[in-house]
C-alpha cells in the first residue's frame, strides 16, 4: 500500500471479504481514489477506483453499497460487484471537507441514510443526509449550530446508533451529540463529552462506546472503565463487535524502535460503575508496522486504521506501509 498514500477511512465488507480504503489527496500526496483489497487465494491483490476530489467513504450497514463524497458536492454510490460508480447525487447545500484528521466524516445508519457534513464554507458546516430510499437530501433537525470544522461520526455496526462530534475547534467546545434510530432524535450526551477525532468505535448494537481510545461507556453513558495508556502511545483502538473487548495498538514513534507493534486486549464487559480501569486480559504482537514511525508529514501516517471482522476473529490494520490481517489469539 506504500504507493497509495495515507488512508483516511477503512471499511470491511463482510459479505465479500474485501477491504476498502479512501486515499484522498492531501498536500499534493494521495491517489484521490478508493482502493479495494481482495484475497485471491494466494495473497491479497489491490485495485483502485479514481474519484476526483475524493473526501471519504462509508459502507452501508448491510454491505449493500459503498458511498464516497467528493469536492464536487457529490455523493457517489459504488456497486461492490463491479467496483464502479453506479449513481451520483449532487447536494444543493454542498458537501463539506472536514480535513484529514478525523477518521470517519460520513456514516450510514440502518434506515438507509448517509450522514454527511454539509456546506461550502471552509469552517462553518451543517449536518445533513442523503436518504437512499428516496434519493433525496435532507438536513438534521434541529440544525447543527456548532459544526465548525466538523462534524465527525462514529456509528454502531448495525447502524442503529450514531455519535456526532460537532466541533473540536471552537471554545467552549460544544457537546457531543448522539442519535438512536428507535426514535430518530438527535440528543446531547448527558455527561458532558465534547469531541473525538479518531480512536473511537461502538459495538455492533451500540451498547458499548470507546471514545478517543481512552474510556469505554455503556449505552446510558455510564463509565465502564478507562483504558490504561501504553508508554508508546496509542496508534489505533477498536472495540470488538460484541463490545466485550477493547483492542489497543501501540508502537514507538519519533524515534521508532525495532520492537514490533503490540496489541493490548482489555476486558470491557463489566457493568458500568464497578471499576476504574479496564483490566488487561492479553497481549499479542503484530509482525510488521502498518504505518510510519514519525509524526512529520503526513501527520496521520503514524495512526493506522484498525477494524475487526464481524466474527471478532481477525484484526485488520491499514497504514501508509502495509495492510495486515492478524488473527486474534483466543483468550
Number of helices: 0
- Largest sheet composition: 4 strands, antiparallel
| Strand order within the widest beta sheet | 1-2-3-4
Can you tell me the overall shape?
Answer: globular
- Run of helices and strands: EEEEEEEEEEEEEEEEEEEEEEEEEEE
Distance between the termini: 31 Å
* CA gyration radius, whole angstroms: 19 Å
Number of strands: 27
The structure class reads mainly beta
Fraction of residues in β-strands: 35-45%
Low-confidence stretches: none
Mean pLDDT: 94
What does this structure look like?
The structure is a single chain. With 331 residues, this protein is mainly beta. Helices cover 0% and strands 41% of the residues. The protein has strands at residues 10-13, 18-23, 33-39, 44-50, 54-59, 66-70, 74-79, 84-90, 107-108, 113-118, 126-131, 136-139, 152-155, 161-165, 177-180, 185-188, 201-202, 208-211, 215-218, 223-226, 234-239, 245-250, 262-267, 280-285, 305-308, 314-318, 323-327. The strands form 7 sheets. Strands 1-2-3-4 form a 4-stranded antiparallel β-sheet, with no helix packed on it. A hairpin with a 4-residue loop joins strand 9 and strand 10. The two termini are 31 Å apart. 45% of the residues are buried. The mean pLDDT is 94.
Give a topology summary.
Elements: E1 10-13, E2 18-23, E3 33-39, E4 44-50, E5 54-59, E6 66-70, E7 74-79, E8 84-90, E9 107-108, E10 113-118, E11 126-131, E12 136-139, E13 152-155, E14 161-165, E15 177-180, E16 185-188, E17 201-202, E18 208-211, E19 215-218, E20 223-226, E21 234-239, E22 245-250, E23 262-267, E24 280-285, E25 305-308, E26 314-318, E27 323-327
Antiparallel strand pairs: 1-2, 2-3, 3-4, 5-6, 6-7, 7-8, 9-10, 10-11, 11-12, 13-14, 14-15, 15-16, 17-18, 18-19, 19-20, 21-22, 22-23, 23-24, 25-26, 26-27
Amino acid at each position: 500500500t506504500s504507493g497509495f498514500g495515507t488512508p483516511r477511512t477503512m471499511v470491511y465488507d463482510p459479505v465479500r471479504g474485501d477491504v476498502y480504503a479512501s486515499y484522498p489527496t492531501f498536500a499534493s500526496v494521495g491517489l484521490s481514489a478508493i482502493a479495494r483489497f481482495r484475497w485471491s487465494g494466494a495473497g491479497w491483490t489491490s485495485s483502485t477506483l479514481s474519484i476526483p476530489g475524493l473526501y471519504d467513504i462509508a459502507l452501508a450497514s448491510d454491505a449493500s453499497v459503498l458511498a464516497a463524497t467528493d469536492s464536487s458536492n457529490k455523493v457517489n454510490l459504488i456497486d461492490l460487484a463491479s467496483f464502479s460508480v453506479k449513481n451520483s447525487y449532487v447536494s444543493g447545500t454542498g458537501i463539506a471537507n472536514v480535513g484529514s484528521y478525523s477518521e470517519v466524516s460520513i456514516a450510514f445508519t440502518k434506515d438507509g441514510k448517509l450522514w454527511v457534513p454539509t456546506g461550502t464554507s471552509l469552517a462553518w458546516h451543517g449536518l445533513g443526509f442523503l436518504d437512499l430510499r428516496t434519493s433525496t437530501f435532507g438536513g438534521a433537525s434541529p440544525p447543527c449550530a456548532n459544526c465548525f470544522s466538523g462534524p465527525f461520526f462514529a456509528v454502531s455496526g448495525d447502524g442503529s446508533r450514531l455519535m456526532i462530534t460537532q466541533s473540536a475547534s471552537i471554545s467552549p467546545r460544544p457537546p457531543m451529540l448522539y442519535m438512536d434510530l428507535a426514535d430518530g432524535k438527535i440528543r446531547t450526551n448527558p455527561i458532558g463529552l465534547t469531541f473525538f477525532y479518531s480512536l473511537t468505535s461502538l459495538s455492533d448494537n451500540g451498547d458499548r462506546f470507546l471514545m478517543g481510545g481512552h474510556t469505554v461507556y455503556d449505552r446510558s453513558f455510564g463509565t465502564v472503565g478507562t483504558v490504561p495508556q501504553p508508554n508508546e502511545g496509542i496508534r489505533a483502538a477498536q472495540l470488538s463487535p460484541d463490545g466485550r473487548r477493547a483492542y489497543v495498538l501501540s508502537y514507538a514513534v519519533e524515534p521508532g524502535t525495532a520492537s514490533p507493534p503490540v496489541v493490548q486486549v482489555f476486558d470491557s464487559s463489566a457493568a458500568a460503575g464497578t471499576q476504574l480501569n479496564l483490566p488487561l486480559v492479553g497481549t499479542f504482537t503484530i509482525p510488521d508496522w502498518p504505518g510510519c514511525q514519525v509524526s512529520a508529514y503526513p501527520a496521520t501516517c503514524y495512526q493506522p486504521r484498525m477494524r475487526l471482522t464481524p466474527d471478532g476473529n481477525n484484526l485488520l490494520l491499514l497504514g501508509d506501509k502495509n495492510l495486515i490481517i492478524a488473527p486474534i489469539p483466543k483468550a
